[in-house]
Amino acid sequence: MLFNLLVPLADEHIIFNVFRYLTFRSGGAVITALLISFALGPSVIAWLKSKQREGQPIRDDGPESHLLTKQGTPTMGGVLILMAIAISTLLWADLTNGFVWAILFVTIGFGMIGFGDDYLKLTRRSSKGLPSRFKFLAQIAIGTAATLWIVHISPEQMQTHLAIPLLKGVLVNLGWFFVAFAVFVMVGASNAVNLTDGLDGLAIVPVMIAAGCFALIAWLVGNTVFAGYLQVHYVAGTGELAVFCSALVGASLGFLWFNAPPAMVFMGDTGSLSCGGALGGVAVITKHELVLAIIGGLFVLETISVIVQVASFKLTGRRIFRMAPLHHHFEKQGWAEPTIVIRFWIIAVILALAGLSTLKLR
């Protein structure tokens, strides 16, 4: 909004020229989202506590310590994340950019699915919310609508193409299969973050790290000079997603203030589904879907651990891990929660650096 209101005045008042720069507006988005989180966090948490007397329902089959340490902690903290992202993005982004609206649609849409899931868990006092089939169908519907929108507004030569990391100039035209692939990326990323969200601070920091990486990627891919220098595929208009990703970084950092051990609030499916969907959507728009699998490798590992566990039990009757997702396996082995969280953060940083290295290795 500030871009649209103030940049036309730049010719008369040079001070407004600063709003032309993505770097300035991205920085403003980080700070704004962070301040919104700090300002609204206590009130939102107090309101959630007043509505959730007993807090988030704890799984009976989960780690025994959770019944003692996490009982009574409210969930749906993702509402705070969504408010910070939406307000900050609308304030600092170019609102004539279709990609901005497409990614907000994905983020808020997936967040609403998560909100419905959290609401049912609370009202039923059960760890089971929306039926899995309904959640997947709703995510697929939103992902499909968003992908068709993204394809429509993307440059013609990039609409249904897949870029291959490490190979310069290579674009694979997937045709209409691209829609299914893009939906898989968004839904997969959304649920992968959801599976990772099981310990205080465990999911939100890797989300913040990935969002920071994609803020840089969006800025580079949307700049003809840097895209040419790095030999990555230029996609006009994606630079504005740097503002959105920066807002996600600020919102994540602000939420971590309240989610740091011992957590005052959980993000719930409201936050995890929306954050994961947002990362998937940005990856699709910037043509870095495969790089997301590297940068968000921690989420991939957590998801694979669940798939392997279920497959092994169904085929052989035996479990590979003491409990899945992977972080619960280490809890069962006696690792302290802060140890698991911090070591997983370190892994997330290493994978993010590996993913960013693909920008130069061509």
For the structure shown, list the relevant keywords:
mainly alpha; 362 residues; single chain
Describe this structure in words.
The chain is built from 15 helices and 2 strands. The chain is mostly helical and 362 residues long. It has one domain. A two-stranded antiparallel ribbon has the order 1-2. A hairpin with a 7-residue loop joins strand 1 and strand 2 (171-173). Helix 7 (177-196) packs antiparallel against helix 11, helix 8 (204-221) runs parallel beside helix 11 (268-286) and helix 12 (289-295) crosses helix 13.
Task: Compose a concise summary of this entry.
The protein has helices at about 1-5, 20-50, 65-70, 80-90, 100-125, 130-155, 175-195, 205-220, 225-230, 240-260, 270-285, 290-295, 295-315, 325-330, 335-355, and strands at about 160-165, 170-175. By secondary structure, the protein is an all-alpha fold.
